[in-house]
Amino acid sequence: MEKMNFVKDGVLRLPPGFRFHPTDEELVVQYLKRKVHSFPLPASIIPEVDVCKSDPWELPGNCEQERFFFSTKEVKYPNGIRSNRATLSGYWKATGLDKQIVTSDNNQVVGMKKTLVFYRGKPPNGSRTDWIMHEYRLATPQPNNPTQGMQNWVICRIFLKKRGSKVGKNDSIGVISDYKSVKSKPIFYDFMAASKKRRTDLNLAPVSSSSGSSGITDDNEHEEEDSRNLDDVSNSRKKESS
């Protein structure tokens, strides 16, 4: 069977419609473990790149997509085990605890995943960026065989974290509290008030009876005034006729 090779000039090139989205278990068992023990890979799809020789935006591939690389860990000191993760413009800094990678069938621990964040500048005064790296390594010690150079292989998954418009924790609490306060005080509107003879507007203070005229004229007063006007007219006509 011909070996499939999708890496050209250090860049992953898949046919249209194909995507490389392996699980953590698949990365460790099917790719990293086979790479360490010199077994055939399912496909030549992960290039070999020293990720610390370049800044993350200078690595091969599309920066807007996640990228996978086989890389070797370089120790920072000759007699130590601490890795040297300094690049040209900054450094990779580990964050959080390493996560165990377990198999789905028998929950066997086969690898570990370390999360790192890229900082610009020199430690400890570097400025944090949105570049993230997941570094996968085998859980068991790798064979120490300098002739093959396989003792320090890891898989690096590098991507740019996308920022979204999220409401802060304090802001969200304020919005929720305001919503609850409004919700707990319902407002009722009486749209039938115009058809009622008696006004029931609760927002207006009641008018005292001793404060003066209410501005509302009674129908009896109109009738009395009209009768007086008629009497005056009839009296004036009698005088003119006499």
Describe this structure in words.
This protein is an alpha+beta fold. It has a domain of 141 residues: NAC domain (Metal Binding Protein, Guanine Nucleotide Exchange Factor, Chain A, Beta Complex). A hairpin with a 2-residue loop joins β1 and β2. It is elongated. About 14% of the residues have low confidence.
User: Whole-Å distance between the termini?
Assistant: 140 Å
Give the helix proportion (percent range). Answer: 10-25%
The count of helical stretches stands at: 3
Globally, the shape reads elongated
The poorly predicted ranges are 146-150, 167-184, 207-217
Rg, Cα atoms, Å: 42 Å
How is the biggest beta sheet arranged?
5 strands, antiparallel
Report the CATH C-level class of the domain at 20-160: Mainly Beta
Output the CATH topology of the domain at 20-160.
Metal Binding Protein, Guanine Nucleotide Exchange Factor, Chain A
How much of the sequence lies in strands comes to 15-25%
Per-chain topology:
Elements: E1 7-8, E2 11-12, H1 24-36, E3 67-72, E4 90-102, E5 109-120, E6 127-138, E7 153-160, H2 169-184, H3 219-241
Antiparallel strand pairs: 1-2, 3-7, 4-5, 5-6, 6-7
GO molecular function: DNA binding
InterPro entries: NAC-dom, NAC_dom_sf
Keywords: DNA-binding, Nucleus, Transcription, Transcription regulation
Concise synopsis of the structure shown:
With 242 residues, the protein is of the alpha+beta class. The chain contains 3 helices and 7 strands, in the order ββαβββββαα.
